[in-house]
Here is the input.
Amino acid sequence: MNKLLTGLCIALLSIQTFAMSHGHNMNHQHQSSQFETMEVDGLTLSNFRARASIGQMKNSGAYGEIQSTINDRLIKASSSVAQVVELHEHINDNGVMRMREVEGGFALNPNESMVMKPGGYHIMLIGLLEPLKAESSMDLKLEFESGKTVNLTIPIVSIKKMHH
Ligand SMILES: [Cu+2]
Here is the structure.
């Protein structure tokens, strides 16, 4: 009996060691696939990423920051990975957090960067055509009221790494 327990402990220990080294590798890879801040056409785009989808869930979100040198609006987002892409916000509806589409999109002004993050403004990916896998990337097209259009490739990250 004791022998069996010892054997089990060693087996568990080696699984843990494997998980740790695997985790390290993934972190390393994640760093190299981070979104590089981009300046184009008077727009600075930074920290863009999408959340890896969970199981068979058909929805996910994309986030990032946009600084504009002029007053403008982000009016449309689209991607080949989802059937529908909407610009959403979270609202507190009598104590219940809900999200809804923002009519007219997100306002940009030169004085502050517009931040899209989990629990706030976000780009909603609806009807995913295939699962979004962590450590890969997806395309994202942004269209602005001023007529500017930006095509991005953004990293997909696991939900555990979303909040930094
Ligand atoms: Cu949403």
Summary: Residues 88, 99, 122, 124 surround copper (II) ion (CB under 6 Å).
